[in-house]
Design brief:
Layout lengths: L9 E3 H8 L3 H9 L5 E4 L2 E5 H14 L8 H6 L7
């Protein structure tokens, strides 16, 4: 992670939510999991605008292909969502 990016490249989770349509809490989870570049500054999380928009583009491109990697196992066991 490069915290030395210009300040305009970092956005709050609320701003990232407005850009992506995701919930701010979900964006915090993505940052904590390292799926988007981010860091905690005091009590707030800042995320890279480029990173969160890139994540959104990748998820949009996957469309219905994005899935739970254990979905097949759950469905086989009769516990998953039936399609």
């Amino acid at each position: 992670m490069n915290r030395h990016k210009p300040i305009r490249e970092w956005v709050t989770t609320r701003e990232a939510a407005e850009l992506t349509g995701y919930d701010p809490a979900y964006i915090r989870v993505l940052a904590k999991q390292g799926k988007v570049e981010g860091f905690k500054a005091g009590r707030d999380w800042l995320v890279s605008r480029e990173s969160v928009l890139g994540y959104k583009r990748r998820m949009d491109a996957l469309g219905p292909q994005k899935h739970n990697p254990w979905q097949e196992d759950l469905t086989t066991d009769g516990r998953g969502r039936q399609q």
